[in-house]
Amino acid sequence: MTDAALAEKLGGRRESEHFVLVHPRGMAKEAVERALRDLEFRHQQVSTFFGAAPPGKVTVWWYPSAAEKQRLVGAEHTQFAKPWRHEVHVNDMQFPTRC
Length: 99
What we know:
The protein has one domain (3-91). The chain has 3 helices and 5 strands; from the N terminus they run H-E-E-H-E-H-E-E. It has helices spanning 3-10, 29-50, 66-73; strands at residues 11-15, 19-24, 58-63, 80-82, 87-91.
């Protein structure tokens, strides 16, 4: 699976100051905005804790379900990161997330 093919399959994309959120097509605008606000809040927390912000933007691949993530990338009930690529892959979860 290439990034371009995965982005096409998911279908939605929105950027903020520190993130690129690739999300399911049809995800409610309010949910996208809420996710970006939470990501930016967490970015600020991490930056404060470490005394500096990480370089560049982080890409968040947001899947509509564990089953869809399994179908697209082969990982179902796990959230995973590729830190060398500044990206994370997560399943859709109700806000606020407690994991």
